[in-house]
Amino acid sequence: MRDMLGREEVLTVDDAKELLLKSVNLPLPGESEIEIENSLNRILSIDITSPEDLPPFSRSTVDGFAVKAEDTFGATEMLPAYLNITHEILMGEQPASDLKKGEAAKIATGGMLPQNADAVIMFEHCHMIDEKSIEAIKPVAPGENVIQAGEDCKKGAKILERGRKLRPQDIGALAGIGITKVRVYKKPKVSIISTGDEIVSPAGPLKSGQVRDINSYNLAGLIEISGGTAIKKGIFPDNYDLLKKALEDSLEESHIVIISGGSSVGTKDMTARLINDAGKPGVIFHGVSVKPGKPVIYGMVNKKPVFGLPGHPAAITVCFELFILPVLKILTGEKEDLYGKIKKIVRARLSRNISSGSGRQEHVRVMLEQRDNELWAVPILSKSGLITTLVRAAGTIVIPMYKTGLAEGTEVEVELF
Amino acid sequence: MRDMLGREEVLTVDDAKELLLKSVNLPLPGESEIEIENSLNRILSIDITSPEDLPPFSRSTVDGFAVKAEDTFGATEMLPAYLNITHEILMGEQPASDLKKGEAAKIATGGMLPQNADAVIMFEHCHMIDEKSIEAIKPVAPGENVIQAGEDCKKGAKILERGRKLRPQDIGALAGIGITKVRVYKKPKVSIISTGDEIVSPAGPLKSGQVRDINSYNLAGLIEISGGTAIKKGIFPDNYDLLKKALEDSLEESHIVIISGGSSVGTKDMTARLINDAGKPGVIFHGVSVKPGKPVIYGMVNKKPVFGLPGHPAAITVCFELFILPVLKILTGEKEDLYGKIKKIVRARLSRNISSGSGRQEHVRVMLEQRDNELWAVPILSKSGLITTLVRAAGTIVIPMYKTGLAEGTEVEVELF
After folding, report:
1. Which residues contact A239 (CB under 8 A, 6 or more apart)?
2. CA distance to partner chain A, nearest, from residue B273 (Å)
């Protein structure tokens, strides 16, 4: 289908995403076993069940005296309960003896309760009579001031699920149940092929007509913060054979390939041809109704996703978020949780009217400002070719395809970088 | 001052934080120069000004013809402007010649404008007459479809500020202006001393009365995600001389020292004594009106902050967020920005009544649930000694000191982990 100007009609973002996710049925990159010390932010590849009770024994949560609760029932300041101190429980050791009726054992926070003790009375609720006896002036209920054996986690209970991104407390819990190594998914590798006869490395001098490579650095960072490993394959001229070789190498060594740049007509066509020639099924979509980022190409070659991205820095970021990130996330093995999404979105009021005549879903970069306890999104209206607008921006807002703009004061969702 | 039970009155959280921040006037850990490839999430220690114009020359943002805009003024479909194509501009090269009146040069997106050209007309707005001439059917304004030399960033302009945490696009911008190495602050080192006669390493068998070290793993993770480097000094028995040596070593090699565990009365006192004996001014506060975390100790020894934390996992997390993180953040050199704070907080409705009889600022762990487009905070009511509640939690909410609770449906701010 072609539009009035004879251009092929492009997909909507939703249709493109549907095509994308339908095509992706990828094996994950495999697993490795690592020390828990190195497991922060890594993705568990197995469920973790506890090999032991945590805590392994009933512990006191206060400093006081381990007692049989019933010995304190009815105790008051006027009518205290008398208890004999039989021993002191040393930290890290088994109590020297069991508790009998009317007995108490001195215990510190974290100490192991003696057999037959079922509660701990705090120092503050006792009067010392002498070295060997106390008056309890308050009753304690059974279980009071005690963490029971296995109360934190029972032996055999599932404590963490496959697909979990490990947080500090998760690693603490693993340590607590004696697990010092975990199986995690390997990080998916993403190759970045930079193309463009005008693109040169950031190092070294510039000749007239040349610009430095920005996008592969931006992309590498986006890949790293999303749980992947970026492989910068280098900068290639718009030469079919050289790019073909680079694509073949990349398909060999990585899970996703990005061909960045090539925003000119000739190069765009070459990227599509390269993908089609590399293997089946080839290009799946070419062009999406989004601004910036319209010329984006997505294909699949021998079960590996290949993306062709336009060269504008802002388009790179939008296309990454919309199309590459969902695929990369699947390959990391991370189970989508609510919290990740919540952290990415913040509501704000739009600081000014913005119009969108593009007829495409438009992503507008915004800064955030706090004014009188309200958060405001301040659009940065500039060309998508400028990297410094991304540097100034906190995130983006979306103007839906069929809207001609958004009014000042509208509540918008800012997707944070 | 002592309360009715003879206990010393403890500071409020606000007072404690004020004391803390007043005492902290610390030299940052120094700088190092690193490749931009490795600079993600590192903190710039200098302002970055651009050594060159970005882009270095005026570039086309579309595929079309570079023109003198005035040659197209008034052009319409019925009355087009005729232009002679003098040459094609090759990507990455200087245009072969300047533009004269009535001339046009074929140019691709990203191509360098010839001298005297000031706009680009898109292919779609031209009719090809033959190889050498076109009809422009729309006028272009001067500057249209062009990014001017230096429009993204002028030579000498400040592009990034000291204290900036580098994001992917920031690194892209550095690459774009030819900066391949940057000066960043060294990461502050935080030593963790685990104490407690009952604490043993996660590896190896447990004897009766012993528990595994959870807190130094949780703390190490919290330090890493906050931009520091954790040094686990190991587990020490409650022995003054051994701990004194460990503290001295830690003060030598790190910027902050945490003594974790020691929640029993004897150990708490020992931690305070250790800090006082190690150097001036010693303990600054001991005990804060917060639940969990009340027994927290803060001191300063020879200009290095030392914290003594109670042993409960939930108390570790609360004390870290309230007291250690602000000091650590100062030492990272990161400039507090609005976005960091925004990402940490989410609003939700409380799923049930919760009471707080503690008379202390209470931090309650919550899960988050999405119900009918609304976010709900579901309190996890359990003992602060349990690590698995932290594993289940998404973050915490705060019940202020003088409130006795919060009602179901109240809008609360959840501080996300």
Report:
1. none
2. 19
What architecture (CATH level 2) is domain A13-29+187-336? Answer: 3-Layer(aba) Sandwich (3.40)
The CATH superfamily of B59-147 is Molybdopterin biosynthesis moea protein, domain 3. (2.170.190.11)
User: Do A368 and B93 make contact, defined as CB atoms within 8 angstroms?
Assistant: no
Where is A317: in which H helix or E strand? helix A313-319
pTM: 0.94
- Choosing among A34, A87, A90, A109, which should be mutated to test the B contact, i.e. which has the most B CBs within 10 A? A109
Closest among A249, A293, A251 to A268, alpha carbons compared? A293
What is the bridge-based pairing of β-strands B81-88 and A297-301?
Answer: unpaired
Separation of alpha carbons A288 and B408, rounded Å: 45
ipTM computed for the complex: 0.94
CATH of domain A32-53+159-185: 3.90.105.10
Taking contacts as CB-CB distances below 8 angstroms, the residues of chain A near B313 are 169, 172
CATH architecture of the region B31-54+151-185: Alpha-Beta Complex (3.90)
**Distance in angstroms (rounded) separating the CA atoms of residues B251 and B285:** 19
**In chain B, which residues have their Cβ closer than 8 Å to the Cβ of A173?**
214, 387-388, 390-391
Find the angle CA(A196)-CA(A200)-CA(A204) to the nearest 5 degrees: 175
Indicate the SS3 state at residue A288: strand
Full DSSP string of B207-243: -TT-EE--HHHHHHHHHHHTT-EEEEEEEE-S-HHHH
Chain B contact set for A92 (CB, 8 A)? 196-200, 207, 209-210
CB pair distance less than 8 Å for A36 and B202: yes
Q: Does A94 touch chain B (CB under 8 A)?
A: yes
Task: Provide the Cα torsion B289, B290, B291, B295; round to 10°.
Answer: -70
Of A36, A173, A211, Cβ closest to residue B388:
A173
Q: Using CA atoms, how far apart are residues A324 and A366, in angstroms rounded to an integer? A: 22
Which pair of tokens denotes residue B255?
């910027």
Both tokens of A2, joined, read 């072609």
> Across the interface, do B91 and A57 touch by the CB < 8 Å criterion?
no
- Hey, is the C-beta of A160 within 8 angstroms of any chain B C-beta? yes
Q: What is the pLDDT along chain B (417 residues), one digit of tens a residue?
A: 454 445 556 799 999 999 999 988 888 999 999 999 999 999 999 999 999 999 999 999 999 999 999 999 999 999 999 999 999 999 999 999 999 999 999 999 899 999 999 999 999 999 999 999 999 999 999 999 999 999 999 999 999 999 999 999 999 999 999 999 999 999 999 999 999 999 999 998 999 999 999 999 999 999 999 999 999 999 999 899 999 999 999 999 999 999 998 655 666 679 999 999 999 999 999 999 999 999 999 999 999 999 999 988 999 999 999 999 999 999 999 998 777 778 888 999 999 999 987 789 999 999 999 998 899 999 998 887 899 999 999 999 999 998 999 999 999 999 999
Q: Which of B60, B152, B367 is the best residue to mutate to test the A interface, defined by the most A CB atoms within 10 Å of its own CB?
A: B152
Domain ranges of chain B: 13-29+187-336, 31-54+151-185, 59-147, 339-416
Q: Do A147 and B383 touch (CB under 8 A)?
A: yes
Q: How far apart are CA A196 and CA B91, in angstroms?
A: 8
For residue B265, give how far its alpha carbon lies from the nearest alpha carbon of chain A (Å).
7
Token pair listed for B159: 């592009």
Q: How far apart, in Å, are the Cα atoms of B211 and each of A149, A153, B81, B190, B391? A: 11, 13, 85, 24, 18
CATH tag, A341-416: 2.40.340.10
Contact A108 B265 (CB under 8 A): yes
Alpha-carbon distance B7 to nearest alpha carbon in chain A (angstroms): 9
Q: Which of the four CATH numbers 3.40.50.450, 1.10.760.10, 3.30.200.20, 2.40.340.10 does domain B339-416 have?
A: 2.40.340.10
Q: What is the CA radius of gyration of chain A?
A: 31
